[in-house]
Amino acid sequence: MKIKIGSSGRQTDASDAARFNKTFIQAASLWLLLAGLANAQIFTANYGNGTVGKYTISGAVINSTLITNLDNPVGIAVAGDRLFVGSLSGGTIGEYTTSGETVNASLISGLQTPQGLALDGEGNLYVANYASGTIGKYTTSGATVNAALISGLSGPLGISLDGKGNLFVVNAIANSVGEYTTSGATVNTSLISGLALPATVLADGNGHLYLTQRVPGQVSEYTTDGALLNASFITNVFGAVGMALDGNGHLFVATHVNTLPDNPNGKIGKYSMTGAAVNASLIPGLYWPQFIAIQTTPSVPIIQSVNQESGMITFTWSAVTGQVYQVQHNNDLKATNFWNDLGNATAATNVIMTASDSIGPDPKRFYRVVLLP
Q1: 310 and 280 in one domain?
Q2: Poorest-pLDDT segment among 19-28, 56-65, 210-219, 272-281
């Protein structure tokens, strides 16, 4: 049986399917239909002035000091309406809303110079601890899963998940990238080596890795097997650290070129997936920007992961706490007036929600997640 999964931000009529901005990702026999990202927003951790800024993906300022008085913010990740921000000096991960309100400034504490953050589709937060050479795994509620999930690393900075259970880690001191599973098993400690001051690795979910190297000032492109595709995918990005994808064919790169932390000479550039500059200074005037994160419109549920096992399909989606969601299914997209509820409507208690269904005799079945009023 072929399975499609969709995300819908509202209850819609018969033309619902035609109104989606569609991105299709093939995973085994599954097809995912993801909501469009036209209203995505960029969050940047500004080390130099202790702030988090919020911008549109077209570069407009929403709030350049959305969160203030942070202690050397570096890592940042977003899920639903929640932001997670790492404090390098404070050794903490704070939780905030995407509107800037503090939820818990010390959600996770006792870390050793935390750097890159990554979120999986099951509500787990991965943290690179530079000083201890470890990757810690926590829930988004702050509970410790394994504080040293991966150890023996050499200055871990940026980390990235590929959505297939693999975690890629930049070892800044060893000038390499290692590959591990999300359960902590080693795949290849030197997947990519011989780099020059690497900072961030980014998996696109389609078998490609993008890697910033600060001194050459470039972004290089590799396969997830470690094969080099283009060493100079993007050039003239000296001091490049953070990267993010908007899911709509654009890569964003944060740089701070030859500046002191208190000088607003950092910027975020926007590039196509061929490496061409769309706007190399999309967002200027930043204070030592570090890692960046992109959030889709909070009200739209976005499929995060899909698993098919033992006759069951299980999928997760991003959610907003307190909002009510209904999973529905349909055997014929031409009959879009006839969607059947899968279970009861559920109010979100976390930023990630999960649903499962048994795989029956239908030749195909389509799913969607609807945000109820």
Answers
A1: no
A2: 19-28
Helix (H) or strand (E) holding 260: none
Cα end-to-end span (Å), the chain? 32
Are 105 and 225 contained in the same domain?
A: yes
What per-residue confidence (pLDDT) applies to 90? 93
Q: How wide is the angle at C-alpha 322 spanned by C-alphas 138 and 296, nearest 5°? A: 70
Which tens digit of pLDDT belongs to each residue from 202-259? Answer: 998 788 999 999 888 999 999 999 999 999 999 999 888 999 998 778 999 999 876 5
Whether pLDDT at 38 is above 60? no
Q: What pLDDT does 259 receive?
A: 58
8-state DSSP, 18? H
Around 273, how many Cα atoms within 13 Å sit in the side-chain half-sphere? 14
Q: 30 and 53 share a domain? A: no
Query: Which amino acid, one-letter code, is at 190?
Result: S
Q: Which residues contact 18 (CB under 8 A, 6 or more apart)?
A: none
**Measuring CA to CA, which residue among 244, 345, 299 is closest to residue 81?**
299
- Same domain flag for 174 and 58: yes
Phi first, then psi: give them for residue 246, nearest 5 degrees. -100, 0
Calculate what percentage of the chain has a pLDDT beyond 70: 84
Residue 266 CA to residue 185 CA, distance in Å, equals 37
Q: Is residue 360 part of a domain?
A: yes
Within this chain, do residues 112 and 260 fall inside the same structural domain, yes or no?
Answer: yes
Region for residue 177 given its phi and psi (left: phi exceeds 0; alpha: psi -120 to 50; beta: otherwise): beta
Same domain, 119 and 27: no
300: in domain: no
Q: What domain range includes position 266? A: 41-295
Res. 3: pLDDT tops 60: no
What's the CA gap between 92 and 87, in Å, rounded? 5
Count of domains observed in the chain:
2
